[in-house]
């Protein structure tokens, strides 16, 4: 098996990190619009700090982001010049339904995305669209407490049906919820949850997870009803856990950590709650709010493919107090002495991508899609404004080699690869612009200053050659 001629090479962004224009076109506010840059960001993201009103003393990087709202024509031209076959993007739920559950959708928002999709198709680029990428309408957080309430399922699926119907024939690849397991680590970002008043944090998180899983299954069902050509995927924040040593305790700890993250897509891909998850809930006093028909809905509507992000692997031990823990990543990990790290403490492990591809394919036997991968780094343009990012090329080259080996040697079925932050954008974890992933430099600084000018980096031309050669030229 080799990479198919139809392999989907592309790039990825998210509305809340790139689009901007949060007060324009009839759009309402969402959770990330009240997530500031700075020292309170992580506490708010984790749901530990109740902060539902915007403050004058905070800087909100999503407000303008890289202003793709006004630059999308130029941006798509650059993507086409790079030769992209697919562009992963997300819709802003509140650009379609400003309050999340309005009686009628916002036509200006619907038309905005329609124009983007038509421009992409004109350039020969297939859209891959995420329905909810760290995106919960602020009005529904205030009204229902977000995904803790089952009424969110109806609001979400009504939104899903609206866009499936409107964009029929323009979009066929859909993702229901971005990095659904982030709900465990950043409940406000992943589900709009504020947990400061909750005695049983785990109960609220798994209750919200159940509602998201139901919504995902219903969206999958609706997508197939609207258009049988639609392909719907789930999306995991991926990266396998390595045992730090060959001690049996460490090996078992790695299995348990993997299960904890993969639980969500186990349900989405297989159609049922695995026994290990049910046992965990039983042990910890967590009550999954099953209602009549829930199990049948999940069983009858598994996703068509499994997508995931991959930036690094994680290393775990049953004896964590004895070891140094890495910083900078959402996932707790022991420092792996065999791996180098990025400036933000993310451990670089291209072989881990091949391992993850094998593990996921063996687990689900469904087509896979790498929808995020990339290197966050500080880029310094030269006097001409050009970035020679050989470090990013090296990182991406090794990861593409790994995915090729997974396909050509191991037999993994892989649909495509979209490099994260194909244009520099606001980093989700920190709110910074200085943590850059793009093959296209965007002139904007952490404080919001800058011209927003787009300039291809050295990696832009390298990736163009990779796509043109179907990764024969690396």
UniProtKB/TrEMBL annotation:
<feature type="active site" description="Nucleophile">
    <location>
        <position position="372"/>
    </location>
</feature>
<keyword id="KW-0378">Hydrolase</keyword>
<dbReference type="InterPro" id="IPR017853">
    <property type="entry name" value="GH"/>
</dbReference>
<keyword id="KW-0326">Glycosidase</keyword>
<comment type="similarity">
    <text>Belongs to the glycosyl hydrolase 1 family.</text>
</comment>
<dbReference type="InterPro" id="IPR033132">
    <property type="entry name" value="GH_1_N_CS"/>
</dbReference>
<dbReference type="Pfam" id="PF00232">
    <property type="entry name" value="Glyco_hydro_1"/>
</dbReference>
<protein>
    <submittedName>
        <fullName>6-phospho-beta-glucosidase</fullName>
    </submittedName>
</protein>
<dbReference type="GO" id="GO:0005829">
    <property type="term" value="C:cytosol"/>
</dbReference>
<dbReference type="GO" id="GO:0016052">
    <property type="term" value="P:carbohydrate catabolic process"/>
</dbReference>
<dbReference type="InterPro" id="IPR001360">
    <property type="entry name" value="Glyco_hydro_1"/>
</dbReference>
<dbReference type="GO" id="GO:0008422">
    <property type="term" value="F:beta-glucosidase activity"/>
</dbReference>
<dbReference type="InterPro" id="IPR018120">
    <property type="entry name" value="Glyco_hydro_1_AS"/>
</dbReference>
């Amino acid at each position: 098996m080799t990479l198919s001629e139809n392999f989907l090479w592309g790039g990825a962004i998210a509305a809340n990190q790139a689009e901007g224009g949060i007060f324009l076109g009839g759009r309402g506010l969402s959770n990330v619009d009240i997530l500031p840059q700075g020292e309170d960001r992580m506490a708010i993201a984790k749901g530990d700090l109740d902060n539902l009103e915007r403050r004058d003393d905070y800087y909100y990087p999503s407000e303008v982001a890289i202003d793709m709202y006004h630059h999308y024509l130029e941006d798509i031209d650059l993507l086409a010049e790079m030769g992209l076959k697919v562009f992963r993007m997300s819709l802003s739920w509140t650009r379609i339904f400003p309050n999340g559950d309005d009686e009628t959708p916002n036509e200006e928002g619907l038309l905005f995305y329609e124009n983007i999709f038509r421009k992409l198709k004109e350039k020969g680029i297939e859209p891959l669209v995420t329905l909810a990428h760290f995106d919960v309408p602020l009005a529904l957080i205030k009204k229902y407490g977000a995904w803790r309430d089952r009424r969110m399922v109806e609001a979400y699926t009504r939104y899903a049906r609206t866009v499936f119907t409107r964009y029929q024939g323009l979009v066929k690849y859909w993702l229901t919820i971005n990095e659904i397991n982030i709900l465990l680590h950043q409940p406000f970002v992943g589900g709009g949850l504020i947990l400061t008043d909750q005695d049983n944090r785990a109960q609220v998180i798994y209750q919200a997870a159940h509602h998201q899983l139901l919504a995902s299954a219903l969206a999958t069902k609706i997508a197939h009803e609207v258009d049988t050509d639609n392909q719907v995927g789930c999306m995991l924040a991926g990266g396998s856990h390595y045992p730090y040593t060959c001690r049996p305790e460490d090996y078992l700890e790695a299995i348990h950590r993997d299960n904890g993250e993969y639980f969500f897509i186990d349900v989405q891909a297989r159609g049922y709650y695995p026994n290990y998850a049910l046992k965990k809930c039983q042990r910890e006093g967590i009550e999954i709010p099953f209602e009549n028909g829930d199990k049948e809905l999940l069983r009858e509507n598994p996703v068509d493919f499994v997508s995931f992000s991959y930036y690094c692997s994680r290393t775990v031990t049953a004896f964590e107090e004895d070891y140094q823990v890495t910083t900078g990543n959402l996932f707790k990990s022991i420092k792996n002495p065999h791996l180098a790290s990025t400036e933000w403490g993310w451990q670089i492990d291209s072989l881990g991508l091949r391992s993850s591809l094998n593990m996921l394919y063996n687990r689900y036997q469904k087509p896979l899609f790498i929808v995020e991968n990339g290197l966050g780094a500080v880029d310094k343009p030269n006097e001409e404004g050009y970035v020679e990012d050989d470090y990013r090329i090296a990182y991406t080259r090794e990861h593409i080699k790994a995915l090729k080996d997974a396909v050509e040697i191991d037999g993994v079925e892989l649909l495509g690869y979209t490099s994260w932050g194909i244009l520099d954008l606001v980093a989700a974890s920190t709110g910074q612009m200085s943590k850059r992933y793009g093959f296209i430099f965007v002139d904007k600084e952490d404080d919001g200053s800058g011209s927003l000018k787009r300039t291809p980096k050295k990696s832009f031309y390298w990736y163009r050659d990779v796509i043109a050669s179907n990764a024969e030229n690396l």
